[in-house]
Amino acid sequence: MALSVEKTSSGREYKVKDLSQADFGRLELDLAEVEMPGLMACRAEFGPAQPFKGARISGSLHMTIQTAVLIETLTALGAEVRWCSCNIFSTQDHAAAAIARDSAAVFAWKGETLEEYWWCTERCLDWGEGGGPDLIVDDGGDATLLIHEGVKAEEEFEKSGTVPDPNSTDNPEFKIVLTIIRDGLKTDVRRYRKMKERLVGVSEETTTGVKRLYQMQETGALLFPAINVNDSVTKSKFDNLYGCRHSLPDGLMRATDVMIAGKVAVVCGYGDVGKGCAAALKQAGARVIVTEIDPICALQALMEGIQILTLEDVVSEADIFVTTTGNKDIIMVDHMRKMKNNAIVCNIGHFDNEIDMNGLETYPGVKRVTIKPQTDRWVFPETKTGIIVLAEGRLMNLGCATGHPSFVMSCSFTNQVIAQLELWNERKSGKYEKKVYVLPKHLDEKVAALHLGKLGAKLTKLTKSQSDYISIPVEGPYKPAAYRY
Amino acid sequence: MALSVEKTSSGREYKVKDLSQADFGRLELDLAEVEMPGLMACRAEFGPAQPFKGARISGSLHMTIQTAVLIETLTALGAEVRWCSCNIFSTQDHAAAAIARDSAAVFAWKGETLEEYWWCTERCLDWGEGGGPDLIVDDGGDATLLIHEGVKAEEEFEKSGTVPDPNSTDNPEFKIVLTIIRDGLKTDVRRYRKMKERLVGVSEETTTGVKRLYQMQETGALLFPAINVNDSVTKSKFDNLYGCRHSLPDGLMRATDVMIAGKVAVVCGYGDVGKGCAAALKQAGARVIVTEIDPICALQALMEGIQILTLEDVVSEADIFVTTTGNKDIIMVDHMRKMKNNAIVCNIGHFDNEIDMNGLETYPGVKRVTIKPQTDRWVFPETKTGIIVLAEGRLMNLGCATGHPSFVMSCSFTNQVIAQLELWNERKSGKYEKKVYVLPKHLDEKVAALHLGKLGAKLTKLTKSQSDYISIPVEGPYKPAAYRY
Amino acid sequence: MALSVEKTSSGREYKVKDLSQADFGRLELDLAEVEMPGLMACRAEFGPAQPFKGARISGSLHMTIQTAVLIETLTALGAEVRWCSCNIFSTQDHAAAAIARDSAAVFAWKGETLEEYWWCTERCLDWGEGGGPDLIVDDGGDATLLIHEGVKAEEEFEKSGTVPDPNSTDNPEFKIVLTIIRDGLKTDVRRYRKMKERLVGVSEETTTGVKRLYQMQETGALLFPAINVNDSVTKSKFDNLYGCRHSLPDGLMRATDVMIAGKVAVVCGYGDVGKGCAAALKQAGARVIVTEIDPICALQALMEGIQILTLEDVVSEADIFVTTTGNKDIIMVDHMRKMKNNAIVCNIGHFDNEIDMNGLETYPGVKRVTIKPQTDRWVFPETKTGIIVLAEGRLMNLGCATGHPSFVMSCSFTNQVIAQLELWNERKSGKYEKKVYVLPKHLDEKVAALHLGKLGAKLTKLTKSQSDYISIPVEGPYKPAAYRY
Amino acid sequence: MALSVEKTSSGREYKVKDLSQADFGRLELDLAEVEMPGLMACRAEFGPAQPFKGARISGSLHMTIQTAVLIETLTALGAEVRWCSCNIFSTQDHAAAAIARDSAAVFAWKGETLEEYWWCTERCLDWGEGGGPDLIVDDGGDATLLIHEGVKAEEEFEKSGTVPDPNSTDNPEFKIVLTIIRDGLKTDVRRYRKMKERLVGVSEETTTGVKRLYQMQETGALLFPAINVNDSVTKSKFDNLYGCRHSLPDGLMRATDVMIAGKVAVVCGYGDVGKGCAAALKQAGARVIVTEIDPICALQALMEGIQILTLEDVVSEADIFVTTTGNKDIIMVDHMRKMKNNAIVCNIGHFDNEIDMNGLETYPGVKRVTIKPQTDRWVFPETKTGIIVLAEGRLMNLGCATGHPSFVMSCSFTNQVIAQLELWNERKSGKYEKKVYVLPKHLDEKVAALHLGKLGAKLTKLTKSQSDYISIPVEGPYKPAAYRY
């Protein structure tokens, strides 16, 4: 792999597929801005004061049109930004091109190899002299992981002279991470520690990354403050639910053109993502069956008329399989062998290990026929029947379609902007320790409020006497912290 | 008012409408037991050990068929029980009769006056010599309120010799409470304090009562431990949501036979109750408009295609109005005057003050025409048009129909049984202080699990390796405490 | 059986349950009028001209509140009316009372025996001297049947002197019909022929009756013109579909209070009635399975995500069974024996023979426990488990609830009024032969138009140039005759 | 325009975008076959007998993957086939390539000019010596139109020597038709009459074409028999309804990525297409408003909770506008000027004149910005706000997505195969006159039956006694001709 950074005429670094797509990206950015009222309101409210003046922000988050509007909101507030994607298939090349040309350093393209992916991540974190970023926007936690692993390796190296051994792991991706860190040690033995020292904090976008953060918090391994954006109501109950309700059928249709009506669809997991997927499939006329480990979520599905069975019960009868669990080993190659011809298998959960891609790829005699990019038919030698796997088991809505639509991402990303502002503004106050925080309720409600006007909504106002009666301030917050919505 | 307690042949006290309805009640109880697998599982699991042996339980909770199954679960576990309803219209007389005859002391009938209501509450708490109950099952907090007000009055009386003055309040209901307490002081100046001393704790069923408890906890006024059953997921996200989705249209249809399809329906509030109501109306073919103060809930409604407007915007165009807020003064008489002829106005929120019944009743020249019990047409003198008010502004699903169906109440009431067991088992351990507690997640999940078999569901089991991967025990709990479902 | 006709102070005949319910009936009539804009528009448009002056109308159609508004529309247009119900359980006694007291001769009460039912039908057709009615409003065709069978018997008697032999049939209901005709022959051998001669025509309400009419038309047996109201779009695609969508869950809830969410519900038949039922159950959260003989209807169900199986496949797993076929022998006693404990079995199709009530009643050792009127639990001796049968297998929405709501019945009944007017106005023109007719499209569209204002709808108008372009008159009709909507 | 026909190595003519896409097309054809059980069943049932041996079939119907499976079904039954698309944007180039290479003469590509479009149509009908095709598969009636206009011109020319004058019409498309015919007259004055003489008949796919046929039938202008495939239930109630329910959101999402949830969407027309569109938008979370001229369809929408307003009422508030009427001048430039910024305007009805594209294109100062092919933003000079028009006002589901999915097209196209077989088999029997016919009910039911197995459905069978009772043969047809489904 010999990747080289390119530079714009103004000297900003980038590596994208094709800079000439920048005009097309800009046109779509213009459309997206109209659909992202929360971000535009942030520009209007905070832009004049330039609160991010002097701040370096590194982002590792799907490099899409919507993310481009986020990036240009951060720059509109004064930040310098470097960016990479958090998924090898999720970059929209025209979005990357527009940002690279106009606004920030971007290292991302659709269809990276794993080596390229981590090269991009490293580039994104590398601000040259003076260490790394002041702030990180993370999705899934890979940027955070790299720094933590880097620091660990440096400390080990300082202590014992040992360098990380890529062969110590079977995980092909972690092998790459260790290689990068090992190679980094050769040029600067304090590289990641310098990053850590400069870092004010990270705001994390998604369930998987948040889970990692809480685990690090628990073991005391967390090196800097983190804001859990995922658990803002206006993120997890919107982007996960309504976003997937939109983008799951979008991905299915673009990838396969299959008629959803009449089909039997299995959704593995009935969390917010699963709820959105099941709703979309049901509404499109599929008969939906859900698999669940959690009896409460299972009972919720049943109350919507959705059957709860195990994957084994239905594996040979269903037409569409969607994993949404955030866990691993949900659909194994042994399941796939038993499926109907041309059953569709896809993942919208987070990592590709929800589907046993490794088992599939190494199945003796299996044949892969690529219908089109991100749509592969895998034919089993015994039966000559095939299954259709989307996006190589990675996020199908980003790999096969364009991810969540702008409006719902505006909710998520307005939380990101607010979280980044909060970390930056409080960087010297000591308000945030090396722990994981959620945004306070009133900011969550503010994010929602910024999105109502676009939809023509008119809120009711509490009277003073009503406010007294229920002991809730007229201007909110309106719910206790534990309220479930 | 000269009410007198009656006695069964076995000497148990009661006051119900008609004991001869006991056979009918028993038949419906038999049906309900099949629909309440959680309660029946409690009988099977805990019954043999008779854990409530020696416990006196007083309950103030709608005296319906479902509650009857709860009561007989408590007695099956060894408890002695006294019961009253927490709403003047919600008693099902055949249920009350069956319980009075067979299982517990009941003081409840459909259509109590407010005086009768509080007489029943007092009877329910009065266990004769030795003070009051060991445990309270409360709904809306009236039993808890009476004890707290009683204790306050006794302490004031001891200190200053002052007795409560019913004329010190404008609230007609509180006037009655004060009268009862005042009269009680004449016979026993330690009556409520004795109750308090014996009391192990209360488990509270509903949002309104829980709110009162937290307020008392905050001011330090809470006299005994309380378990907040309402905020068990298997309660608030089931009974409130799916229960109302069932019972709102049921009440509308029984009261008015009105066709819901094609109508414009306004739902005030989009919490769990509002969500259930809006879903039911939408599915039945109404065009639903929601009013909200909370931008997050408003945005949720919008994502379901529901318009958010203020009541003023739509008051003269809508056909059906439902209050679900838990607040007061939602629909005022000035709104009602502007409504279409035969617009339907009802409340499923908690208290009747969501609708300005007082304003309506005292409106000059207004005429009330009772179509049938709980269905009144109020005609305004200026326009000669009328509106139809259900259940006199009280809970329309209990006043006009039969409340929530058995299956969903089995979820709620299994939480009650578990909460009562927890309080009783830990009565000497000091585990519970004078605070408000929620049940731990694993018990919440257990409640759900007890209801899956009846619906033919089959859960998936985590493998050891999956359990390790996501750091969640194979047997649960499966979600963090703040998870929103 | 010794039934006797009663008379109002004005001398009009009647036989109802309780005339004192007339006031209550009138209150509900007042409400219903507001919900029946089509009928009220007919009163306004045609009333002044008194087009039915001199016409005698006999109706055999569920004697409900909605039918009462129809009757008073007919009388408002100048007709004299006699009425009976077409179902032994469907009469609403307060509606019958109000009409009997105020407007027409009524012979109907809830819970007639079969003998009483046919006595009422005969009374309804008997106008004393001068033969029978000029016009019949029929539902299911029983009034039409009686006249046809009567005429046949009279002709046979004239020819051969033979009188009908009730023992010639096994069908208990037809036995009664033959008895009535036989007894009638004793007093007047030309009774039914006189009726036939006077009769201008019949308008038939429902699928079953229409099917009978077409069969008679085919064999040449039809004795007078008939208008098929059922196949007006504004009847069959509204009342059957939206009416049942409303009244099926209403009946289920009133009869059993069962929670529909989470249950498995089997709908036998996916015609308009079945579509309405399936939609209602699905929306309430049941998992719906449909049985069908017709592959087109089956494919429609599949497109909505509904599984198509045979009754045998699901009989032991489902919780709710609904027949909607218009055929017989759908659910047999052998099916019922295999059902889960407390499975609910009901019919909304037309006749009670969709369910094998005879097989159930005569099953050796079976025990019937009446929970409440129209709700019976039948316990099988082998298993001691029981099933719950609604309305004794007859129309459950009319037996257990109040039938279709006013608004949708206004569509159906406006068609009836227009059909009756058409028959009456053309009685001398020869326009209608002894055949079955449907109303012309423009009248069907008119019925719909009369119902839009109440729902706040605003139609678009064709421009002249658009009208030319699609060759459709500006004022309609807008669709070809075969259009399916 | 200088288009030239190309030839495959086997000598078959074609003109497509890029023959090298044939492999990709073949892969998608393989997938589609699995989703088109009706067509595959036709191959299995009829293929061996080669019924189309000797038949020349010309088709003018969107050249998509699904149509490719139709074409190869016709060739599998022995036909020779020539094909063109019936819409300038609807061709899928990889489908055209695969068919051109492997199976039939194809003249079609995505993005034809109108001149190119009619050149393709002419090529499709031109079988060289011996006149034209034996059979036509038509969609919208353009092939049929060309022959009828050609014959008319030739007869006029023979009579009066007059050639058609393209300048006699303002309609730019008809100008091209006249030019082609005029030029044709120069080479062969009997060209179209020879076609007519050979022609056995046409089967027409869609509402618009069917309407034209009935108009010609009425005036006696129809030159050959026609089978109206559109009005097979398994076509119009499936493809129009369920097809659009699938492909409308697909087109919206691919073209604009806009979030549908929360938006206000206006659907003009509530026929089958409008019903499918409204359902899709509602289910995706939009608030849907329908405009209608027909009161019956309007009342149907109201029963689903959909508001009926005029376009004028909502033009400035809605976000998405969809025309589905089959009429012209639905959304005029004056409407478009009043829309919100970035309102989306699209047509799924049939012709592009539902939207006033001409008014838009000629609006003074308007600016067109092409975001990507088929997605244009038109900016008005006064407001600088723009609207987004999809597929230049033509069928957006074909222009912006891939049209209806395979499964539903299998229903439609199985009707086409059966219709073509019927015409061909009866070509000498005189069964079909120069009229428009629909397929008999039993064939319609057969089409449905062929699609049930794929969805796992199991039909119920009538017993003999049930069949007798309802006078319907055990094997069907199950419904009278006028049944509306």
Automatic annotation (TrEMBL), chains A, B, C, D:
<feature type="domain" description="S-adenosyl-L-homocysteine hydrolase NAD binding">
    <location>
        <begin position="240"/>
        <end position="403"/>
    </location>
</feature>
<dbReference type="GO" id="GO:0006730">
    <property type="term" value="P:one-carbon metabolic process"/>
</dbReference>
<feature type="binding site">
    <location>
        <begin position="271"/>
        <end position="276"/>
    </location>
    <ligand>
        <name>NAD(+)</name>
    </ligand>
</feature>
<feature type="binding site">
    <location>
        <begin position="348"/>
        <end position="350"/>
    </location>
    <ligand>
        <name>NAD(+)</name>
    </ligand>
</feature>
<keyword id="KW-0554">One-carbon metabolism</keyword>
<keyword id="KW-0520">NAD</keyword>
<feature type="binding site">
    <location>
        <position position="404"/>
    </location>
    <ligand>
        <name>NAD(+)</name>
    </ligand>
</feature>
<feature type="binding site">
    <location>
        <position position="205"/>
    </location>
    <ligand>
        <name>substrate</name>
    </ligand>
</feature>
<dbReference type="InterPro" id="IPR015878">
    <property type="entry name" value="Ado_hCys_hydrolase_NAD-bd"/>
</dbReference>
<feature type="binding site">
    <location>
        <begin position="206"/>
        <end position="208"/>
    </location>
    <ligand>
        <name>NAD(+)</name>
    </ligand>
</feature>
<feature type="binding site">
    <location>
        <position position="139"/>
    </location>
    <ligand>
        <name>substrate</name>
    </ligand>
</feature>
<comment type="similarity">
    <text>Belongs to the adenosylhomocysteinase family.</text>
</comment>
<feature type="binding site">
    <location>
        <position position="239"/>
    </location>
    <ligand>
        <name>substrate</name>
    </ligand>
</feature>
<comment type="function">
    <text>Adenosylhomocysteine is a competitive inhibitor of S-adenosyl-L-methionine-dependent methyl transferase reactions; therefore adenosylhomocysteinase may play a key role in the control of methylations via regulation of the intracellular concentration of adenosylhomocysteine.</text>
</comment>
<dbReference type="GO" id="GO:0033353">
    <property type="term" value="P:S-adenosylmethionine cycle"/>
</dbReference>
<dbReference type="Pfam" id="PF05221">
    <property type="entry name" value="AdoHcyase"/>
</dbReference>
<feature type="binding site">
    <location>
        <position position="64"/>
    </location>
    <ligand>
        <name>substrate</name>
    </ligand>
</feature>
<dbReference type="GO" id="GO:0005829">
    <property type="term" value="C:cytosol"/>
</dbReference>
<feature type="binding site">
    <location>
        <position position="397"/>
    </location>
    <ligand>
        <name>NAD(+)</name>
    </ligand>
</feature>
<dbReference type="GO" id="GO:0004013">
    <property type="term" value="F:adenosylhomocysteinase activity"/>
</dbReference>
<protein>
    <recommendedName>
        <fullName>Adenosylhomocysteinase</fullName>
        <ecNumber>3.13.2.1</ecNumber>
    </recommendedName>
</protein>
<dbReference type="InterPro" id="IPR042172">
    <property type="entry name" value="Adenosylhomocyst_ase-like_sf"/>
</dbReference>
<feature type="binding site">
    <location>
        <position position="292"/>
    </location>
    <ligand>
        <name>NAD(+)</name>
    </ligand>
</feature>
<comment type="pathway">
    <text>Amino-acid biosynthesis; L-homocysteine biosynthesis; L-homocysteine from S-adenosyl-L-homocysteine: step 1/1.</text>
</comment>
<dbReference type="InterPro" id="IPR036291">
    <property type="entry name" value="NAD(P)-bd_dom_sf"/>
</dbReference>
<dbReference type="Pfam" id="PF00670">
    <property type="entry name" value="AdoHcyase_NAD"/>
</dbReference>
<keyword id="KW-0378">Hydrolase</keyword>
<dbReference type="InterPro" id="IPR000043">
    <property type="entry name" value="Adenosylhomocysteinase-like"/>
</dbReference>
<dbReference type="InterPro" id="IPR020082">
    <property type="entry name" value="S-Ado-L-homoCys_hydrolase_CS"/>
</dbReference>
<feature type="binding site">
    <location>
        <position position="235"/>
    </location>
    <ligand>
        <name>substrate</name>
    </ligand>
</feature>
